[in-house]
Amino acid sequence: MFRRRLRLSAVAGACLLVAASAATLGAPADAAPADDPTVQVTIDTFGPVAPKPGQPVVIKGRVTNTSSVTFNDPQALACIDRTRLASTAAVEAIPTEQNTPMNDRDSCTNLTNDPQTFKPFEQPLAPKQTVDFTLVVPWKEWRISGQTGVYVVGVTFRGEPPNSARIMAGRARTLMPVAGATPLARTVDTALVIPLRHRPTQLGGKNFANDSLAQALTPTGSLGRLLALGKERKVTWLVDPAMLDEIKQMAKGYVIVGQNGQSTPGAGQSDATAWLKDFDATRAHGNQVVLLPYGDPDVAGLIDSGDPLKNLVAQARKTTQGYALNASSPTVPAAFTNGLWLEGGAAAGRYLGAASGGFAGASDSDLNLVSSSSWSAATRPVLTSTPVYDVMTPGPDTLVRTVIADSSLTSGGPDQETASSPLQVRQRFAAETALIAASGKGPAASVVVLPPRGWDNDSAATAQLAASLSLPWIKATDVATVVASNPRPQVARSPKAPETNGVLTEAQLSSVRDLDAATSTMQNLLVDENALPEVMTHALLRSTSSGWNGYPEEARHFTAIELGSANQQLGKVHLVNASVDRGLRKEIKVNLAGSKGTFPLTITNDTEWSVRVGIEVTAANRSDLKITPPQTAVLGPKQKWTPRITASAEQNGLIRANAQVVTAGGQSVGKSQELLIQASQYGSVGWILVGAACALLFGTSFVRIYRRIRTERRNPAPAAEATEAAEATAEPADTPDPAHDRPEANGVPEAAAPEASMKEGVGSKDG
């Protein structure tokens, strides 16, 4: 009993020891501290945009509790970093403090002297709750000088979470440009470039894949809102001409083709008509139009793919060069600028050099737009005076005239999480241009503003940029004027980029290759290559659009339909085959008698164009079939051609072959047609036996005739009797015998029966 109690005590002691160890290992002192609770602070309005000394500033916004705790005694406070930023480089270098805990961020000092600069909330701020605030900051509370410059200001949130001291749980900052009492040194000629583009939706003719373009054209759609910005302001339109063609067709009437093949009437005809009318009105107002390469192709992706896809870049530029920018009124100018738009890695010299030229009609007046974000901060050209540079490229023209859009004018800031908001974009634009106007020499500086691709989906930030053109130091202009004012640009190195920089996936590029091959074959098939329907070349270029980025399924659907349409046209030029079994074409059967012979094949042209075709026949199971290809022939619409194919085979038997219609250049047209060729001929031994038999036959006949003539000469009177006697006494070997009309087989087997000759591979070279 004593030993049992001792064992129980030992077990209990061990358990207590383990528990104590676990408690020690899990003590809060060793645990990682939990993240501080945070809230989201948003600045919705800030005014004036650029206050003058003495003007109060009104800041409105909201605070949303994104944490899971309730904050007691909450309040919002205005703050400022009193370091004056006097250059665009200083603005670029503002610290983001992303890796600093919210409560430790101290770059924005709270303003608490005036009750208008902070707002206590009446109730605790519960989780998911949002409250609004309005702060009015008198000028003196900023405690800054009256010099022109830029300051970082903002709003902070402070409160007490449970079991904690008061903390700063949220902050939002923005840029405040100050227009000092001293007049600015110069104005800033500003060309705002607004892209008008949309991913392709037209499948061909009246058929459209979806109604997304129509929705964008409405007054509240993205394209409708963007177009409205140019009605009363001077802007430069950057337009995809393929999109214009789609809108023109929509204005005439269109249908939406569903996945099941059913068509429904499109709903955007009136919106398309109104949009085109407004577009022409803005052009009449004097807004410049820059047309992108047709379809807005993925330049980097196509060039990286090599031949033949890289040639589509020049084809897209050539198509735009010859584009007819029709107008609804004779007062609307039809002129446009042929342009190119590259950014990021796609702006590398190898792309810029290749895409800026190499097509018919290329000229120095073409516009090459490149975003400054393509360069690193250390290698970026200086843009405080002019955006026009000659960029060095490895192409045939080593210097390419380039307009560099200043990406900092649209980058917003200074906090990354709110940088793209319209208010932040407006304040950054105002700050950057104010600093450019305050520095430098000369009557004016020039800048080009171009929002990046995929930016500002609802057009709100672009609207803020357009509204900022009314700032006192801004003079709105267009890109053509900016280029003309800088006739002698400086030289800049091209930006560096990774090895590949395309936006289309490899699967998308593979589909484009297939469509390009079918379109090229169709063009080479035509007698007049210029007769290729424009809709086919336009469809090919639309399949390369950078607008497909982010829409892979729509891209696949579009390219599949266009490829099917191209192959359908190619299939109308084909071999005629009367042998059909259950709706399927069977093999074409032909016979080849002798070592060399001919057989006919018929090609029909069911298209509406004249084509030049040829035929190629290749064996599938034998190497001894020799084909002399016929010359190509021209077939008019609905015509047929039946050439005789000259062929030879060294062996008897069945030959499987494929007959393929080809273009004059040898490209395959449609699917090949299977042939079954029956080759029947004598071998060399057979020909020797035939020759020997003929020699024996004619030799025997010659001997008989010779003897008869000799007998008649020796005994002319009884010629008949002598002849009969001679015949009666002739040797048996001289007597003709039906059995000897052909030579003996000499061990050579006779020709096989017809059934056996139809088997593949039957027969030998020696018969």
Describe the protein in words.
The chain has 19 helices and 35 strands. The protein is α/β, with parallel strands linked by helices and 767 residues long. Helix 6 (241-252) packs across helix 7 (269-284), helix 11 (422-438) packs parallel to helix 12 and helix 14 (506-525) runs parallel beside helix 16.
Q: Which parts are unreliable, with pLDDT below 50 for 5 consecutive residues or more? A: 1-34, 722-767
What portion of residues belong to β-strands?
25-35%
* Largest sheet properties: 10 strands, mixed
User: What's the overall geometry?
Assistant: elongated
Chain oligomer state: single chain
DSSP helical segment count: 19
Structural class category: alpha/beta
Q: Key terms for this structure?
A:
767 residues, alpha/beta, ten-stranded mixed beta sheet, 35 strands, 29% helix, elongated, disordered C terminus
Task: Please specify the SSE layout and strand pairing.
Elements: H1 2-25, E1 40-47, E2 57-64, E3 72-85, H2 88-92, E4 109-110, E5 118-120, E6 130-137, H3 139-142, E7 149-160, E8 167-178, E9 187-196, E10 202-204, E11 207-208, H4 212-217, H5 222-228, E12 236-239, H6 241-252, E13 255-257, E14 263-265, H7 269-284, E15 288-291, H8 299-304, H9 311-321, E16 337-342, H10 349-355, E17 367-371, E18 388-392, E19 399-405, H11 422-438, E20 444-449, H12 460-468, E21 474-477, H13 479-484, E22 490-493, H14 506-525, H15 534-542, H16 552-570, E23 573-575, E24 580-581, E25 584-585, E26 588-593, E27 596-600, E28 603-605, E29 611-619, E30 626-628, E31 633-635, E32 640-641, E33 644-648, E34 653-662, E35 673-680, H17 684-714, H18 719-729, H19 754-757
Parallel strand pairs: 9-12, 9-20, 9-21, 11-13, 12-15, 15-16, 16-17, 17-19, 18-22, 26-35
Antiparallel strand pairs: 1-2, 2-6, 3-4, 3-5, 3-7, 7-8, 10-11, 13-14, 18-19, 23-28, 24-25, 27-33, 28-32, 29-31, 29-34, 30-33, 34-35
Helix pairs in contact: 6-7, 11-12, 14-16
